[in-house]
Amino acid sequence: MAKEKKLVEQITAMDEDFAKWYTDVVKKAELMDYSSVKGCMILRPYGYAIWENIQKDLDARFKETGHENVYMPMFIPESLLTKEKDHVEGFAPECAWVTYGGDTKLTERLAVRPTSETLFCEHFKTVIQSYRDLPKLYNQWCSVVRWEKTTRPFLRTSEFLWQEGHTMHETAEEAQAETLQMLGIYRDFYLESLAIPAITGQKTDKEKFAGAEATYTIEPMMHNGVALQGGTSHYFGDGFAKAFDITYAARDNTVKYPHQTSWGVSTRMIGAIIMTHGDDNGLILPPAIAPIQVAIIPVAQHKEGVLEKAAEIKDRLAKTLRVKLDDSEQSTGWKFSQYEMKGVPVRLEIGPKDIENNSCVLVSRVTREKKFVSLDNVEVEVAAMLEQVYNELVARATKNLEEKTHTATSLEEFLDVAENKPGFIKAMWCGDVACEEALKEKTGGVKSRCIPFAEERLSDKCVCCGKPAKHMVVWGRQY
Amino acid sequence: MAKEKKLVEQITAMDEDFAKWYTDVVKKAELMDYSSVKGCMILRPYGYAIWENIQKDLDARFKETGHENVYMPMFIPESLLTKEKDHVEGFAPECAWVTYGGDTKLTERLAVRPTSETLFCEHFKTVIQSYRDLPKLYNQWCSVVRWEKTTRPFLRTSEFLWQEGHTMHETAEEAQAETLQMLGIYRDFYLESLAIPAITGQKTDKEKFAGAEATYTIEPMMHNGVALQGGTSHYFGDGFAKAFDITYAARDNTVKYPHQTSWGVSTRMIGAIIMTHGDDNGLILPPAIAPIQVAIIPVAQHKEGVLEKAAEIKDRLAKTLRVKLDDSEQSTGWKFSQYEMKGVPVRLEIGPKDIENNSCVLVSRVTREKKFVSLDNVEVEVAAMLEQVYNELVARATKNLEEKTHTATSLEEFLDVAENKPGFIKAMWCGDVACEEALKEKTGGVKSRCIPFAEERLSDKCVCCGKPAKHMVVWGRQY
Asked: What ipTM is given for this predicted complex?
């Protein structure tokens, strides 16, 4: 087991330095690599395979709810980007600008898309004439660019992969319902597929998307108590429609502006998975999106019949699961720690003695519990352990979220919690942006995450200014 | 049927104006739309769904042969792009250049990737140390940008979607085998999934990829006899490896340069599908990649029981096929021509009389043959007609390819064929680039497509200069 220990030691302990632990994990689990383009990363096969599983799962959820995929150009002419005032103010400062095509200076510079509302609006104008053309329920999988000064793998990079949904509706009510439906899909996906419970709610005006009337958000908590904005869904009203002059002939023969939404999640989710579930031995992947769900490690593989039996089990399991049989010449210990580091949910060990007993050993990546099971029903046993891994991940993350969610009813208490207890703070708020700014300044970075859907009434007064409280807000530091 | 006729009349006849017929089809079948970014197009839901089916099919073929997907940054620093001399000469003139990030001028300008050999090489340098790290079999699905002066939907656009495979191998032999294997996968995919037969072979030195030692190509012929370069596979030798200083510790304890390949196909394939199979009624899609394989049109749908029966058939077929039941309020005639225009392979009509007879009508999009079939085995009948559609598409395209492939053994004959007979010309060639250039000039654009794998010996003399012939070349005009 010497080698196993050595490999594990390569990862900094979480408690020692969480940020270093994180970068150790992303590098050593071979999720990504740096490139010579500042702030851009390379998604390596294992990291990209996680993204492919995420895509496949979410894409099915989008299609089930009637959405269609499209592809818009990656460039936005400056004049198009500037059509909606709030929007351009929010994004222009972080755009990468194309100014030359070959040797020719462009007459108008082009932004590499930071988000595609403007492109979709331009297209909507040509394809929407009548209420019969509505709703338009579009989604796009692509990469976007936001020129970032400081970057961290998956969490903040100058280019990242994402999906952006863009929809148009006859009425405000229908668009609002879409906005909430999509946030619900994100919440279900986080819980069901990523095993991540999270707080959901509405962003304050200060924190909402540039150009939106309302922004809804999912805010999972990382293991260290820091929030990660996990996905957002925006209701635009008819603001962009007016700016882009998109109208439709309504059922009552009047001409109306359609109502719009957009919503997106990105490769940040891989960061959320790492920081929610990972431990000092590396990554732990929820079974639904793990590229390898079961790693089969033959023990004493040179002995007669071991590899044959391992291959036989692999074939049986591979009918319904993603399975890897590692019959390489690396030591068994090296393999154990390798697949632990890569977060494979279940390890299956099989050696000569197991074969004699018509059994094998299953090991859970979360609890590291070992279970001897009969080969007769290995499919059922593996499925049960995967289910158990999922349940344990949800339970642990829920416990972390609950234990690190605090309340504060006075400014003193708020500052004390912010200083001493990592995590979220539930506290009442008057609705004034000045109080948000004051709390952020006094705490050195605690911001409103959202007004949660599950709002409580902790007191009648704003925790900051003491004026009458309008909402309970969940506050926290963020990535 | 008045409406049907009207709709069909909106498409220009192929014989009248093939180019206009093409743009009519791409627009009216709602495959794409133009955007305000010159040369970039919007892939609308129906066009993107074709691309999704292509991706899924090809991706499975790549994975079966051991390839893994990755994602590289979309930007290439100028210094990286210029590391391989031939490569940069080929691509720099058509690069889009990013020069600003927000308000800050970049110290080094960045090309939006026109292709990613340089990025892959930079990464290979960090992940390849030993023969144990080889082969690296990577693929990437992404968009690339090549600043084009004149553009046509799908065929030539400034941004397009594609896949680019990039692999590294221990030996030249292994890399050459990979290059040919991937061209073989393209050939199989074209024939099996797109129903497109094509000539395959090696590009002449003049036509090969910038930086490659050898380029292999698949060259389908469009209905009008014009070639479309349908996909290429390149063998690089160790040229890039040397330029990027990528080495590995070999089995014999020496330090060696690995051998490299790259290969790609793009959304151009959608152009190939349109121009190979389409007719005066619009698109015809091969069943394997058709977003809708069967369109169910209820006849007299207001009559009792019609929609229920149509829905029941839909549910039965949808277990294995992509089916759309159109129960909208449009007329039956409109629906017929709509799904013809969109190239749906099989139409299923069902009305009160059919239901009485426990039958329905199947109509082939290719031959427009009608077949009355029993509802008892509708699944089998539909599958058989889809198979028939596929076979007919292959037969028609093969006939077109054969009929429009001519031979020439003298310059006079070559020029006569080039002038009067659209299609390919098989003719002998001395191997001299001067003859390629002379033939292109004399014919106003006929170029070497490839030296086909199925080479023939038509004569001993170069068709252009009369010197001893080295190869038979297939020549033709191209998109």
From this structure: 0.95
